[in-house]
Structure prediction request, 322 residues.
Amino acid sequence: MTTARPGLDPELRELLAGMPLMSRLGPEALARLRRLPSTPVESLLAHRRVDRREVTVPAGDGAPIPLSVFSPANPGRTAAAPCVYWMHGGGMIMGDRFSQLDIPLEWLDEFGAVVVSVDYRLAPEAAGTVLVDDCYRGLLWVAEHSAELGVDPARIVVAGVSAGGGLAAGVTLLARDLGTPAVAAQMLICPMLDHRNTSTSSRQYSGGPGVWTRETNEFAWRCVLGDLTGDEVPEYVSPALADDLSGLPATYIDTGSAEVFRDEDTDYATRLWAAGGQAELHVWAGGFHGFDALYPQARLSATARRTRTDWLARVLLPDCAA
Prediction:
């Protein structure tokens, strides 16, 4: 029996009609997707006055972790800036530090934020806690070099989209449990939080083509977890497993009503509130997974992106937010 699904936003449905969609993802298809050209970061920087710096940070096992640092080119700036530490999407199996970079660069424009994007290792070549550990190491470097970067260490926001949103949640849990560094807020955009893949929305988006289906999600998680099963899966890798969500910073979560991660995302927000935390949740009616990254020109996308920016203004610039 086919499970009923929420309908797509009419404008997004029309835009999506011309896009090739996947029903399943396997090793051969992943290899083809990885051969596609990387995001041309130069086009994103062409109309901006930005200083770019490339840094390599050692992982726990000594492997190099590339970071890209983007700072507003403002020689007269004296005040320390907020920082957005960015983790890209791609199911933890594809993408790089330039993927979806247009999203945090909007916050460089709006707030003069320094944007640092991390190139964590990908599954299945890296698995288990390696990916979230890579991201955490990069965050530690940012905090330790905040003065050099012109960053206010009290205004570091951990942010990511899809897989990057799940990694952002895992990094924030790690920072809380290890006591460092301080995280001012976490921005979780349609985050990939739960390897169990058993929610109602997961079942709704099974068995057909889509931007990200239950089947593609299962494949990605198998790549990430490797041999880990059941109780062996750490909460830092699959943050929905965390029993204790207390003591976390202000959190923004958004998702679409028509996507596989909808229910795990709304559940995470509910549990943050239950633990006494402050979270803002938006479920965009008719939004599919990653709609605003794929089609930023759509009206719903513009609203979603503007709403995130307004929330960040209240967090980062409380005295100036309207």
Remarks:
- Residues 98 and 108 are 15 Å apart (CA to CA).
- DSSP finds twelve helices and eight strands in the chain.
- Residues 299-316 form the longest helix (18 residues).
